[in-house]
TrEMBL record:
It comes from the Eukaryota. This is Putative molecular chaperone dnaj superfamily protein. It comes from Triatoma dimidiata. PROSITE patterns: DNAJ_2 (PS50076). The lineage of its organism: Eukaryota, Metazoa, Ecdysozoa, Arthropoda, Hexapoda. InterPro entries: DnaJ_C_subfamily_28, DnaJ_domain, DnaJ_homolog_subfam-C_membr-28, J_dom_sf. Residues 4-68 form the J domain. Gene3D superfamilies: DnaJ domain. SMART domains: DnaJ.
Length: 260
């Protein structure tokens, strides 16, 4: 009985939570078994504690109902839908998660568009790098005006190149190059130089880097291997010239084995 709980804690009926808590603390000091009070009573203390816990649960339920599912300290918050009759529907337009969200159409079309986007991005990055490098070098020997003029010339050069490329693409789309021999076939130079085991986009990016003065790591490594092989071959030829023709003597055979 709720009234009995208030009576046990010796507070008026419908007292607030702070009043109940203060009364509980005072009674605990008097009846707790570990207190030094002369009124210590285990059974009385258990009755007081039970009444206090029940009233705390009552306050919690009242607050939960009052705040519409918000609960004490927001621990029992439940989100409510404004209209539960509306079923969830998937969005009609979703951003592509593959190919960095570039392109549209079928997967194969988007792959081609993504390859062109990467190549254009690489050209743009190389252009910006060259402009920044030119500006850094020019600050040491040229005035600010000359530096800006040189940067503008580089931008103009690449702008003209892009314009020419656009004009070529426009002419191709109009069919002005249909009478050229080899139309629709890959270039012979591409067939000769392109490694079939290398991705086409990677191959084109390496070409862009090489054309702008950069050397990919695999080209540097191949050059080092070739130079090292030529040095070894030259050393073996020189050492072989120090000994006579076949058959070799025992000393010459020993020398040749040590050389190898």
């Amino acid at each position: 009985d709720i009234s009995q709980w208030y009576k046990t804690l010796r507070v008026p009926y419908n007292s607030d939570q702070d009043t109940v808590r203060a009364a509980y603390i005072n009674l605990v000091k008097r009846f707790h078994p570990d207190s030094k009070s002369s009124e210590t009573d285990v059974n009385k203390f258990r009755e007081i504690e039970r009444a206090y816990r029940n009233l705390q649960d009552k306050f919690c339920r009242e607050r939960y109902n009052k705040n519409d599912c918000e609960g004490e300290y927001g621990l029992y918050y439940n989100e409510k839908n404004d209209d539960e009759s509306i079923d969830h529907t998937a969005p009609q337009h979703r951003q592509y998660l593959s190919y960095d969200g570039v392109g549209s159409g079928t997967p194969s079309q988007r792959q081609k568009q993504h390859a062109k986007h990467r190549a254009a991005k690489a050209v743009e990055n190389v252009t910006n790098f060259r402009i920044n490098k030119m500006q850094d070098d020019s600050n040491k020997s040229l005035t600010l005006k000359e530096s800006r003029k040189k940067a503008k010339d580089i931008q103009t050069k690449f702008g003209v190149d892009r314009l020419v490329e656009d004009l070529i693409q426009e002419s191709i789309s109009k069919g002005e190059f249909d009478n050229l021999p080899g139309k629709g076939k890959p270039l012979k130079t591409l067939q000769r130089t392109h490694n079939p085991y290398v991705d086409f986009v990677t191959h084109k990016m390496n070409e862009v880097l090489i054309d702008n003065g950069f050397t990919p790591a695999w080209i540097t490594l191949q050059k080092e291997i070739t130079e090292h092989r030529e040095k070894i071959k030259a050393r073996l030829i020189a050492d072989r010239g120090k000994i006579g023709p076949l058959p070799l003597s025992q000393e010459e055979q020993l020398f040749w084995e040590e050389t190898k």
